[in-house]
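User: quick one, sequence for these tokens?
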């Protein structure tokens, strides 16, 4: 069965699939000319199973993405293990979502199809043709979309259950010396350790991460190494974590990457979760945020069930004639304007960014000179006359930093909470792997 992934802020980068057949311009097609093997079970996951055909289909998508990106292809047995583990985690999330009452409607799936088609600049009908051309059943494809939406909503529920971000947390974040140090685009390889790892397990993990590090030093591509060897959630995306400032990563990560330049990697780092190798792909300085604000006043004649748009237009036209004849703008606003927030202030709207009141107001403002009055114009609220009183540039860096700090704290906590809950799912579940040479069970 073919698996599709939908971008979502709620999933904070965890377990995102890439549909190569669509995202590479529809030219990447699965080879349908070969002989299909007899289907079999490759894993038992609590109340359900993962089939060989499902694993092969998922592997085919990842292989095509790797080829399209130009990355080195990892050994197929390692790729198979990585993809199977991801399928297991996805299946566990679907089961938990259903058990906790999360449901997806046909309308939800229809909207997801529309969004997916739009992202790839095709129609839903064209999307269906591509799927069916590759021998996939569209009803099964819809079912898989529903499962992806279930996992999204489950993770969103996990995030929504977190405690709110406090002002104290924001202040601590802002006080960090790492906040103003710019941002690093990071990739990550992890060799995981189980809880309560034995000395032998630690030694084996240390040997494995040292071997990976040596391979990287000898020229192995980092993304290929992540796909082949990493136990982190972002492994099949080439280990890409994305842009982070040093306050948004664990302290032992920050200390390791602080002095790295683009393209450099850390030596293996030990944490409670295992061993890590980090790569800095790029770096950017913290930017200053300066916005332009406008001070204007206006007179609005509202159009509603009592006053037609035509009657409102006629009234605003008469007011414009009064202004042109020299009558005072503020007095006319007090007498005629239907904007109760500004009428008593002579129509003064205060200082605001030009886009605050919509595109029509924005286009009017940017065309005016200070002290100039516009011609009557219409918005959804009614008819307006606007006078530009002044412009200024204002530094909003501090406000933007506070908002960004809150977002980063929430993102970091969300990632930690989702990882914790998903590890609990895995630990508490019965999983039996039936891949040749990797037979095992847990839970």
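Assistant:
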């Amino acid at each position: 069965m073919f698996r599709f992934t939908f971008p979502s802020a709620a999933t904070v980068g965890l377990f995102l699939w890439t549909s190569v057949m669509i995202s590479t311009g529809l030219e990447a097609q699965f080879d349908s000319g070969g002989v299909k093997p007899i289907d079999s079970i490759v894993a038992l996951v609590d109340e359900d199973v993962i089939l060989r055909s499902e694993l092969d289909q998922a592997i085919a998508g990842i292989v095509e993405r790797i080829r399209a990106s130009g990355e080195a292809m990892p050994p197929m047995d390692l790729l198979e293990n990585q993809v199977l583990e991801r399928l297991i985690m996805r299946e566990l999330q679907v089961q938990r979502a259903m058990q906790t009452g999360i449901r997806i409607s046909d309308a939800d799936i229809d909207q997801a199809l529309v969004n997916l088609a739009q992202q790839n600049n095709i129609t839903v009908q064209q999307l269906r043709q591509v799927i069916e051309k590759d021998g996939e059943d569209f009803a099964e494809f819809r079912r898989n979309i529903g499962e992806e939406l279930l996992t999204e909503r489950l993770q969103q529920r996990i995030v929504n259950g977190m405690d709110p971000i406090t002002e104290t947390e924001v202040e601590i974040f802002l006080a960090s010396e790492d906040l103003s140090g710019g941002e690093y685009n990071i990739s990550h390889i992890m060799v995981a350790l189980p809880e309560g790892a034995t000395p032998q397990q630690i030694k084996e993990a240390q040997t494995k991460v040292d071997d990976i590090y040596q391979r990287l030093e000898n020229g192995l591509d980092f993304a290929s190494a992540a796909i082949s060897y990493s136990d982190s959630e972002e492994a099949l995306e080439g280990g890409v974590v994305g842009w982070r400032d040093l306050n948004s990563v664990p302290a032992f990560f920050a200390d390791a990457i602080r002095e790295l330049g683009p393209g450099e990697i850390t030596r293996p780092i030990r944490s409670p979760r295992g061993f890590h190798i980090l790569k800095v792909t790029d770096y950017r300085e913290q930017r200053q945020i300066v916005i332009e604000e406008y001070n204007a006043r206006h007179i609005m004649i509202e159009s509603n069930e009592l006053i037609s748009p035509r009657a409102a237009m006629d009234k605003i036209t008469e007011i414009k004639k009064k202004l042109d004849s020299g009558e005072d703008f503020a007095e006319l606003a007090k007498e005629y304007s239907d904007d109760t927030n500004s009428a008593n202030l002579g129509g003064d709207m205060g200082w605001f960014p030009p886009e605050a009141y919509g595109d029509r107001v924005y286009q009017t403002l940017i065309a005016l000179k200070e002290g100039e009055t516009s011609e009557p114009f219409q918005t959804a609220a009614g008819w307006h006359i606007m006078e530009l009183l002044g412009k200024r540039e204002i530094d909003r860096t501090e406000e933007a930093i506070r908002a960004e700090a809150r977002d980063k704290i929430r993102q970091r906590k969300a990632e930690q909470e989702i990882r914790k809950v998903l590890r609990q799912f895995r630990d508490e579940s019965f999983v039996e792997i039936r891949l040749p040479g990797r037979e095992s069970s847990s839970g």
